[in-house]
Specification:
about 110 residues, mainly alpha, 5 helices
């Protein structure tokens, strides 16, 4: 009987890491590094933020000028079409810029 208890004690002490993985040193290090990562709003460079905001303002301004040209110009004017084409070009350019920035690592991906 005594040898059975000794074997059971050795077995249960060896399994302590499996039953309680939070007690292992690797789990504690992984938890510490996970807690060090910031979640929520990501911080990007100020120049990229200002560039994206400026292009968005240009897109809205082009749309507003197209609306103005549609309301005020004579029927044969091409200015509204040019303004809308400029808006589409800016939108596609911004999309391609953001995709390229993500691809080259300028915009970090989500960690979760």
């Amino acid at each position: 009987m005594r040898s059975w208890r000794a074997a059971a004690a050795r077995f249960s002490s060896a399994r302590r890491d499996c039953q309680l993985p939070s007690d292992t040193a690797a789990a504690q290090a992984a938890t510490a590094s996970a807690n060090a990562q910031s979640f929520g709003r990501k911080e990007y460079s100020a120049s990229m933020r200002y560039l994206v905001i400026a292009v968005l303002v240009l897109i809205v301004a082009s749309l507003a000028s197209a609306l103005f040209f549609v309301m005020r110009d004579r029927s044969g004017s091409k200015r509204a079409v040019k303004a809308l084409a400029l808006r589409v070009g800016l939108s596609v350019g911004l999309f391609l810029f953001l995709m390229g920035a993500y691809y080259f690592g300028l915009i970090p991906g989500r960690l979760i």
